[in-house]
Amino acid sequence: MDQLHTDLINLGYDGQSVNNDVFNKVCNKGPPNVYFIDIMSWLCSQLNSLCDLESHVSSVDEEDLEAIGFLVEMSSLLKELGCPIKKLTRGPVEERLSEPEDKMLAIVYLCQELEAGKILRSKKPQKKEPMKIELSESKTAKELREMLISLGFGKPPDNITPQMLFSEVEKKVMSLSSF
User: Which InterPro entries match (predicted)?
Assistant: First the structure.
């Protein structure tokens, strides 16, 4: 339990369960309490920011503690993450996360997912910019290109020889000068 508390703090958790006395109440038997929900919603929001998940888990106030809504959101998120722990994703929703070991499993699983997400993010390039290719052409090549465009030529085929190209240019210039 102490290691789990340390792991959460190392991941950046600074919510209401940071205090050791409060943290010991997180995994009590019975439906999820406000401290457990606070940790889980924090872990899920961190995962959402890293992994762009569709599901999210809302935090709740102590007066508004509605475990069934939380359990449905958690179930959806765990399924989206592909959680392999069957007791967290199968069976009646209201019975999930009622045992202390199930709560610990859920916290450990999301901590590991968050650690993996942070590692992947650190190895991924921050911003993908399109590659810019700048071609430099000689003055002669530039003038030749501009001449071909002015005369209405498209891009010449790759297999055309310079002699064939200039022959076509000569024909075009002669036809235009005869007007």
Answer: FAM98 (IPR018797)
